[in-house]
Records
---
Amino acid sequence: MTNRKLQIIFVGFLFLCNLVLLGEDKKEGDKYFKSGVEKAKAGNYKEAVQDYTKSIDLDPTAEKYNSRGLVKDFLEDHRGAIQDYSKAIELKSDFGDAYYNRGIAKRDLKDYEGAVKDYSKAIELDPKDSKAYNNRGNVKCLLRDFRGAVQDYNKAIELDPKNPRAYNNRGLVRSDLQECKGAIEDYNKAIELDPKYAKPYYFRGLCKIKLGEKESGCLDLSKAGELGYDDAYDKIKELCQ
């Protein structure tokens, strides 16, 4: 047998060995990943990060970086989370969830312009993502782009007409735009969809009081307090005595 043939056989053997080792790494990585998922579900976030890190060291994937980023967000390590989401995007450029999650982390760090860009990319990748429209609307509110926010809430409601939070959010913007009657319509819809959702009672109450409907408005504030919205009691002391 010639040296050339021996070399080919040896290289092939090494390749097969590497495949076996890679397969073992993937199995071990999957084991740590599953353990991380279970620990995250149980609220053991620090331990979940450790398991996700071991899994990534053995078999790095975009999904694993994204999962570790989510847990870091729960631990309020938003900068660390952004690093993980960015790595996930580097590995998988069309990973809409990673853009969406990075948008949330940027919002938490008050990088509102960056958050809008990430939500916009998530929407580009999945135009039917109602949550991305809703969240982009929230950030536009923080940037005082109220009319742009209304457009996003309109789209979120079109895509998911049973989301009470989108109606409540649009109501808030309408209140800021001095459109109290339209805001009340949105709060009514939010309450219809989720009668135990405290915020729309609170904000509807404020709108009613502003429109001169003090008795009904104060009852809404009281209901918001009953449902756990503690700010309502301060407003009752201020406006309903």
---
Amino acid sequence: MVKVILRLIIPLLTLVFGQFDTLAQTRVQKSQDLAVIQLENVQIKAHSIGSFFSTLALSSDIPIGLEIAFSKDTRTPYAVDFKKGTLSELLTQFVTEHTEYAWEIRDGAVNVFPKKGYRVALFEDLLKTRIGRFSVKENTSCAALVESLITTSEITKVLNVRGAKYRAPDLTGFYIPQVGRKFVLEVSNSTMKSILNRVVRLSPTAKFWVIATNSDGSLNVSLAANHEDAKKEIQLWR
């Protein structure tokens, strides 16, 4: 049984998506199928969809990727009070309340994405872009991994065609999120979405990715991670 009580989590996504408060007590049972993972007493109150899903991913050790919907106020409050059931039931409850979104499990990760008519064309183009070769070495930070991915020739080409610019989130605090000291990755002919999914599925720390727009209109792609040395049961206070 894994229990997690959180009141503050990941300064990086707090900056990107806003402040949030959460109290979660989660039990995760191992399963080859993410959809039937058992969750218990999940209570999350967040001021953005990004912080909502980052909290769920990091507190429950569930790999999740999020594509933000078009013209959606990312600072809209999001909350869930889920007593007991499967991950599938929790996600279905969420998309029933927020009808612009759908969910699926792809590449071993949960993907939450906008339905047709709500998708940002740039995000859709980037996520389906195939990258010939991509690798991650040991001791790579989340920010460095994303930067390396964004600067591949394939992704750079899409950004140039779209006239889009990428701006990395500002990092604050003494801890820089890492994907794992010993984490390495070598992939070829894979889409950007598949690579991000694989990272959050295999990394011992990074369990959440998001693609969104910054306040200045620039592209934001971020990973969120727990501290590698953190205990499975932690309590953090504001």
---
Amino acid sequence: MPAPRQALCTALAALALAWALGGCASSVSTSSFKGEQHGVAQAVADLQSDVTAGDEEKICKDDLAAPLVAKLNRVQETGNGRTVSRAVSGRCRKVVKDQLTEIDSTDMKVESVALAAGAAPRSATARVRSVYEGKRRFKTLSLVKEGGRWKIAGLG
């Protein structure tokens, strides 16, 4: 499996198991969270909204953290016994678009948000409950704060 696909499996594809990212998904409620925790929950809600709209450009630009986008923009090529990794502009959008067609419609809820210690936290986790193939699932999403916004960094 190429590196961008592996990154996708640990990020967007795995998120499909954790979220209602399909067209019939209900929206994520953020009203029970306050302050920075609300911002974290809102980042998850924004991602769900953008996935529901099928807007891969917004997902890559606004919802996913820069290191994750950089991973999704890389391809590995093997030739002459060597493996070379190179950046491909816009690859994140293509990878996300390809995955959007495979996401089931489920329901999701942000159960809890934990902020990293400190007066101005730069990382957080969100515990998310979803229903996937008729079964409840729980996943923990990692988020980071970039440019004043919380963004999805991956699972765990």
